[in-house]
Amino acid sequence: MKWLAGVSAVLSAFLGIRKGKAAGQDVKLRFWQIAVAALLLLACFIGGLLLLVSLVTR
User: Fold this and answer.
1) Residues 34 and 4: beta-carbon distance below 8 Å
2) What local confidence, expressed as pLDDT, does residue 41 receive?
3) Greatest C-alpha distance within the chain
4) Is residue 20 helix, strand or coil?
5) Could you give the 3-state DSSP secondary structure of residue 57?
6) How far is 54 from 58, CA to CA, in rounded Å?
7) CA distances from 5 to 15, 17, 20, 23, 37 (A)
8) 8 A C-beta contact, residue 6 and residue 34
9) Interval 1-51: pLDDT, tens
10) Alpha carbon 11 to chain centroid distance?
11) Cβ within 8 Å of residue 45, ≥6 positions away
12) Which stretches of the chain are assigned E, i.e. beta strand?
């Protein structure tokens, strides 16, 4: 459950939207949970962009 909370916090940070109640719950997350979720989501984002570019330039 905490893993999903970390992913949710990072995704909302990427989008720039977060409600006050949910942001208050983010304080309970550990640094490594947020860091790992951010790195994985960033890798997925970059991989998606590379895939999109390769499909468009074909």
Assistant:
1) no
2) 92
3) 46
4) helix
5) coil
6) 6
7) 15, 15, 15, 11, 10
8) yes
9) 677 888 888 888 888 888 888 778 878 888 898 899 999 999 999 999 999
10) 4
11) 14
12) none
**Taking the CA atoms of the chain, what radius of gyration do you get in angstroms?**
14
Q: Output the pLDDT for position 20.
A: 80
9: tokens are: 């916090």
Euclidean distance between CA atoms 3 and 9, whole angstroms: 10
Task: Kindly give, in sequence order, each residue whose CB lies less than 8 Å from that of residue 10, ignoring residues fewer than 6 positions away.
Answer: 34, 37, 38, 41
CA dist., res. 39 & res. 45, Å (int): 10
In the structure encoding, which two tokens stand for residue 54, read together? 């390769």
Hey, is 8 helix, strand or coil? helix
